[in-house]
Amino acid sequence: MNQPKNQQSAIRHALNVKREDDFAQWYQAVIAEAELAEESGVRGCMVIKPWGYGIWERIQKLMDERIKEAGVENCYFPLFIPLSYFAKEAEHVEGFAKEMAVVTHHRLIQDGKGGLVPDPEAKLEEPLVVRPTSETVIGAAMARWVQSWRDLPLLTNQWANVVRWEMRTRMFLRTSEFLWQEGHTAHADEADAMTETLRALEMYRSFAEDVLAMPVIAGPKPENERFPGAVETFSIEAMMQDGKALQAGTSHYLGTTFAEAAGIRYQDKEGQQTLAHTTSWGVSTRLIGGVIMTHGDDDGLRTPPQVAPQQIVILPMLRDNDGDEALLAYCEELRASLAKQNAFGERVRVLLDKRPGKATQKRWAWVKKGVPLILEIGGRDAEGGQVSALRRDRLWRQDGKVNFAAMARDAFVESAVGELEAIQNALFAEARDRRDAQIERGVTDPAGLATYFAEDRKFPGWVEMVWSKPTGAALDKVVEQLKALKLTIRNTPMGGEPVSGSCPFTGEPAVERILIARAY
Amino acid sequence: MNQPKNQQSAIRHALNVKREDDFAQWYQAVIAEAELAEESGVRGCMVIKPWGYGIWERIQKLMDERIKEAGVENCYFPLFIPLSYFAKEAEHVEGFAKEMAVVTHHRLIQDGKGGLVPDPEAKLEEPLVVRPTSETVIGAAMARWVQSWRDLPLLTNQWANVVRWEMRTRMFLRTSEFLWQEGHTAHADEADAMTETLRALEMYRSFAEDVLAMPVIAGPKPENERFPGAVETFSIEAMMQDGKALQAGTSHYLGTTFAEAAGIRYQDKEGQQTLAHTTSWGVSTRLIGGVIMTHGDDDGLRTPPQVAPQQIVILPMLRDNDGDEALLAYCEELRASLAKQNAFGERVRVLLDKRPGKATQKRWAWVKKGVPLILEIGGRDAEGGQVSALRRDRLWRQDGKVNFAAMARDAFVESAVGELEAIQNALFAEARDRRDAQIERGVTDPAGLATYFAEDRKFPGWVEMVWSKPTGAALDKVVEQLKALKLTIRNTPMGGEPVSGSCPFTGEPAVERILIARAY
């Protein structure tokens, strides 16, 4: 589709708040206007609405294929975890104790005032925690399942809800309950476990970039940012349009921490009882927050074609007269020929939206939801064998009106798959270029950090620096310095040239690069 | 595949307990030996293992297609429900109060003795219930979403875990936590809501019969068996091999009960504020229990091809010598040509099981899991272009050995889809014939019931009787009489001839048929 240059003048956008004016408000507006989710009335919990849940279903389907492809098998483990399971691993419990929902009773009774209260007679002997993550309960199962070296590697995954009682919540990014997948694997030794940890990390990197069109940087996190109980935590970090970092997925090498706590031991080839090495890795509905803040614009969401519940929406311009029948027949034929195409190895998802309502209202509802291609078909289009098409990723306006490209119907059908692929690529390229332009490599000391991240700077990006990878008290000092600027070390990008020079924090020889950023 | 008659003599079966000897023990044995699930160590909660979860994934996929086909949209609602939501609907709360898990705290602290306790400082102001079902919390969302008659019907569904604190649990059939889908819809009037209730019921009936090969009888339940808060509850009832009934799915017309409690009101075409009529309908992991008790035999599970995670398993008879390479290449080619076939509108699911281990051990593991077709391929088969095939639904033995049918490879590939369809049909026909033979229509009074269901009778079936559909105290009396015999009225089969005669319980004119049975 050829479209003239975007005419920025006098544009009224579909949202009543722009990114540049108030990014947090804009984020809420996209969620509301694209009908992705809403507050539920239950503290910190959201209702995920059809378009938002549809994106999650796409994420589930495509991630699940990759998980199965790697030989990992899906299981389902209990929602409730006895307190004693947690108590076995001190660091893990310390990391989660502050945010756990605890079940203490299994029955309600009338309070005599028309209300209900937990029945004191039905108090649990041992309280149950609603899983914040499942290492402990899956570890207990692994201890039963792993007997011999022949049982390893043991590769499991579950799709589940988890609960972390967050004090400040934000839809998709930080909710008390969220949906995720958690992979849990057990291996004979560190080398095999680390290979799996990195396999999962690479799976997440390619998923984020190839499916969500969201560029990320993968690497190990510093010691102070590790998952409670992990020996090494790796993350993928994405840059949002306000320059902040979003940890979009993590993969942990857990050493023998959880194997010791749960007793995951196997008889090795020499007949010795040996502790297994475990890993865990997860991504969650948080990814949807990442998609919004990577691809949204002032007209709402732009949904990457691979995860769009509908990739093409056809809007017939109904007139409530005799012509409607022929128009609908034309649209239905168009729908059927599009639905036969394959894009990204699957059938094209196309919807003919026949609901009553004003065509322009319906158009803007789909624009805000970010459906990649929108077709408006009027009576004349139908007669002339034409379509009027709109690419959501480069919505443009002239004289305040959205301009559709008029095309011959057959030409559109032929080009549709190519357009969807082009949109997917364009969204990625745009996000990657913006991200790359916002990684600052000229800052070489803490004072430079303070300048770069000065309070009045709008949407600062990330700073890449070298450091000496301090540990213990020396690391604490760096973390404190950064904390004063509301900064954290996101991760250590993998690959790249060897580093030289000295660490701006410790003065010692630098050993690696780190990314410093504000973060969600 | 032609197979000689089953030679019953001197057969040693794969399970160490037979159905006829101890059905309950047999059920546990199938679950253990087919590696479907196991006790988790958390009271009443199970771990669903890969083969069991794989069946659930198949159920989810095929049911979800039907749900979407009906225009119902998936959403996700909170796990936690504030107590006050429940208190609004007295009958509903009375039905569930006795079995609700209650969250009272959101933080743990050290107890000073190395353990953990709920932090008294972190007590919730209002306790939260872990959803036993979601009418109340979805009703609250519907009250926000429904404003005008244009918003109706509102058709939503969620796939979720729910918790009902059961005192006596049994894997898949009755667990404290289980997985299900719950459809929730709102309509302008009773007629539209009832149409949806019956649509869901018919969806469940056809799913049970066409996909799970499990014959069911659909119909309304008597008043005393209604879902708490429902105006009418319909069920599908399946007969297990021990003659007991399993309620395998329910669909409820809820009238305006929940609309009143949550305030689901819309402006009708005349501008009046009007209460919506709602429905809910669900099936759960209980269906897997139904599949086991419908199709299992003394060698384990027989998994219906449509829900089998693998439909064909190829077992190469590896010899750890030079011949293995050619054998594996032959098997891989065979796998690839089978995987290209379509059965039931999807690609055939075929696994080449290359894991080390003795071939017969591996065979019996797959027999117990109930994979529909098992192929054993030895070196000679590979050289001769043959396969040795086994149909799991009619496993037969001669002289204590399982006899495979030898076939030309190409002939097998050509017939495979037909065999899978034949297995699906054969499992259904077998279950239907058994069920039909076990519905007793000759019992005409309560004394006859006592005889038919006498304690020493092994695996009694169901009794179909007529009755006058009493209500209130008269119904209570019937229920009490049946309870003394451990019987319940399952439902009123829909369709069929008009009834005549008088009700054996009340003496009044009979108006409909009922099914009386022991039940899970």
If you had to describe this structure to a student in words, what would you say it looks like?
The structure is a homodimer of 520-residue chains. With 520 residues, chain A is an alpha+beta fold. The first copy, chain A, folds into three domains: 207 residues, Bira Bifunctional Protein, Domain 2 (BirA Bifunctional Protein, domain 2, 2-Layer Sandwich); 131 residues, Rossmann fold, CATH 3.40.50.800; 79 residues, 2-Layer Sandwich (Translation Initiation Factor IF3). A seven-stranded mixed β-sheet of chain A has the order 3-9-10-16-13-12-11, sandwiched between helices. The first copy, chain A, is globular, with a radius of gyration of 26 Å. About 1% of the residues of chain A have low confidence. Chains A and B meet through strand 2, helix 2, strand 3, strand 4 and helix 3 of A and strand 2, helix 2, strand 3, strand 4 and helix 3 of B. Chains A, B: InterPro entries: aa-tRNA-synt_IIb, aa-tRNA-synth_II, aa-tRNA-synth_II/BPL/LPL, Anticodon-bd, Anticodon-bd_dom_sf, Pro-tRNA-ligase_IIa_arc-type, Pro-tRNA_ligase_II_C, Pro-tRNA_synth_II.
